[in-house]
Amino acid sequence: MLKFSQALHLSIGSISSYKLRSALTTLGIIIGIAAVVANVSLGASFNQFFVDELGSQGSNFIVIFSEDINLFYDNQLEAIRNTPKVEGASPIRQQLAGVTYISTIRQIDIQGTSADYENIGNIQLEVGNFFSDQDKYTAILGSDVAYEKFDQKISYRNSIDIEFIRRDGTPVEHSFKVIGIIDSPDTTFIQTGAESDVRIFIPIDTMNEMLGIEDYGGFSITVEDAESVRPVSDEIDKKIARSLGVSERELDNEDVKPYTIFNQADILDQLDELSTGLTSLFISVALISLIVGSIGIMNIMLVTVTERTKEIGLLRSLGFTRSNILSLFITESIILGLIGGILGTFLGLVGSYAAVTILGLPYIFPMYLFVLGIGIAVGVGLIAGVYPANKASKLDPVESLRKG
């Protein structure tokens, strides 16, 4: 009986004797495995990117937007703040306004909030401080507003003029002192209501006073922990709906409710689906290369059987059985697959690193990819080598020696 060590020695000898042929055989596997490994790694990197993007908008958040005017007031705000596990809640209002700085006028989104929004929205200041609930005509500028929107950069403690148009069409203008500039965010892909770098934040009470209104455009809320986000969101949804006369049985009917509510948990679920879809797409494309590689192994192994007819006949005459011949060729295919898997996994690692560096994504390379890449390659080598090995084992020794 042929020992494994003997089969391994003979297979390595055969591979070494035909270096070019062996290299061409493994090339398809190397490319296929590299594509699979790189694309799985890219999928993980995209997933982490989405999670980081979401985290940049605040932790454990819930956001509610009104779809009508005169909908949200202080009673809804108090109901939200009194909900168990709500850590902070801020009323919000968004409106486009004319902003003047040194005779230059730009149309910019103004975000009215309370002081709590600094923590709720994960606002990081480059300079200055966020306004308090006692402040009135003060403003926090996004980095893009401060440094890019106007002909001259706006500095900390400068003043700007903001002009709103009321609901009746009347313009109202007032001067605001800049008390803080928001640090340029690292991520901008996902937005949950306030793109901080391109907006100006002012106290919502001041904004409502200028507009001559008392209602809010919505609420931004943060919850104590991630596990509580969805149940707290459901509880707030019930409270808001009840206050607006929407029955509990119609809570799932988005056409009935005059507001939109979403939370971090829901968005994470959607991002997970998106990431899974991207990873599946990447892997599907990569598997095409792997299939081509496996066909390449099979074709070259079949050619090898023809070229080594005399060798097979000689081995049979020396007492090698069909199973021995079968083992030799399968071992050779597995070794080729293993070599391709190791090189392909390394190439995939390098390729994925280069891709995420260019795309600016976090580099994620799960360690299981080493096992996955090499395991797939060995499996492909085994499957692709079975038919040629079986064909080789069935050759008649006398006929093989005669043809050889």
From TrEMBL:
Its membrane topology: Multi-pass membrane protein
Ranges where the ABC3 transporter permease C-terminal domain occurs: 284-397
Domain MacB-like periplasmic core: residue ranges: 22-238
Keywords of the record: Cell membrane, Membrane, Transmembrane, Transmembrane helix
Single GO term (MF): transmembrane transporter activity
Subcellular location: Cell membrane
InterPro entries linked: ABC3_permease_C, MacB_PCD, Macrolide_Exporter_MacB
One Pfam family of this chain: MacB_PCD
GO annotation, cellular component aspect: plasma membrane
Transmembrane segments: 20-42, 281-305, 325-351, 363-387
Family, per entry: Belongs to the ABC-4 integral membrane protein family.
Name by which UniProt lists this protein: ABC transport system permease protein
Originating species: Methanococcoides alaskense
